[in-house]
Write a sequence for this structure.
């Protein structure tokens, strides 16, 4: 990227490139957080399903693509530890998300960046309005 000696972007295109990459990083963080939250939800379901069971009962656990036979007593603590680890990662990702949002907000304020809707978005809205009206479908005359 073209930058001035002070570290400032040289032109609007460079600012737009930096802004676009920051927005992309923000979207990636959001996606990862959503993915991990789904995994935490699955872990919670497993924990609630096996917690009331007899600790000596057999259960199966997938470890690295291999199905392993264990007991509830062995599996339950491992699943709980995994869930806690995922929650810690989500917390760190949320911190990174807030930093990235602040960085984007600072860039928007500094360079007075405004987002405008593309023409494609406006056409899509108009198409939906037309499609929602009821009409009569007429086939070829027989």
């Amino acid at each position: 990227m073209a930058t001035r000696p002070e570290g400032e972007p040289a032109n609007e295109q460079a600012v737009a490139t930096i802004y676009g990459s920051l927005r992309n990083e923000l979207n990636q963080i959001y996606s990862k957080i959503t993915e991990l939250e789904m995994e935490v939800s699955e872990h919670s379901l497993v924990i609630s399903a096996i917690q009331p069971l007899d600790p000596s009962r057999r259960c199966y656990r997938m470890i690295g693509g291999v199905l392993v036979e264990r007991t509830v007593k062995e599996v339950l603590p491992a699943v709980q530890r995994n869930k806690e680890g995922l929650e810690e990662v989500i917390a760190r990702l949320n911190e990174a998300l807030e930093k990235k949002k602040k960085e984007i907000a600072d860039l928007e304020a500094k360079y007075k960046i405004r987002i405008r809707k593309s023409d494609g978005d406006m056409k899509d809205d108009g198409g939906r309005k037309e499609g929602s009206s009821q009409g009569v479908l007429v086939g070829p005359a027989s």
